[in-house]
Amino acid sequence: MKVGTDGVLLGAWAGRGVPKKILDIGAGTGLIALMLTQRFPDARITAIEPNSDALYDAEFNFRNSPFAERLKLVKTNIQDFKTEDRFDLIVSNPPFFTNSLVSENEGRTEARHAHTLSPGDLAKATALLAENGKIAVIYPTETYIAFSAAMRKIGFFEERRTEVKPTATKPFHRIMGVFGKSNQPTERAELVIEKYGRHQYSEEYVELTRDFYLFDDSKS
Do 62 and 37 touch, CB atoms closer than 8 A? Predict the structure, then answer.
């Protein structure tokens, strides 16, 4: 599976402070978990993934990373996941192609179709949060609205939100959000990925992701 921009964005954006325990729901190849171990040196990350193909890739990536001792991988989905741990931060780049045709590659289909992880199911994962824990997600706009509504029903509020557009001339196509129990005005921001042309990244995108990419600064 390819490295996706959504995962890179969430891995670079989610979390503040010094979370000690992090849960990555639907870890895929382990990209977000690896980014978070780099960003938070004292954190221990549990990554869950039900898809065997993705799990194989994540196992390889974790084993060959310098953070292997702080990473735990479990083959399960969130609906069946059992643990005594409570997490300071939960992250998820959930599946969202709810109406697309099933692809020939069943592994990739399973990884990206929302029938395997609905916004309501993901909202229920808040039961695994510590007292002041947060959950951070990235979704297409319409699905994000549904997730936000599900969170409000259980007493969680949008604390931070960044709307993302692929280029300066295109509409916003993703929203990243952090939810917690603090019912305060939402901290809002916008992010353009490619501001000047193909692979000509905006200053904001470069700043957000520079610890994970090698950029040619002359093109940003």
Answer: no
The CATH T-level fold of domain 5-211 is: Rossmann fold (3.40.50)
Could you state, in order of their start, the residue ranges of all structural domains in the chain?
A: 5-211
Element (H, E) at 208: helix 203-209
15: left (phi over 0), alpha (psi -120 to 50) or beta: left
Q: Report angle CA 114, 212, 63 to the nearest 5 degrees.
A: 75
The span from the CA of 15 to the CA of 20, in Å, is 11
CA-closest candidate to residue 219, choices 8, 209, 204, 203: 203
Model pTM score: 0.89
The continuous run of DSSP H or E covering 60 comes out as helix 52-63
Residue-level pLDDT at 33: 98
Q: What is the pLDDT of residues 90-126, one digit of tens each?
A: 999 997 644 444 444 444 444 443 447 899 999 999 9
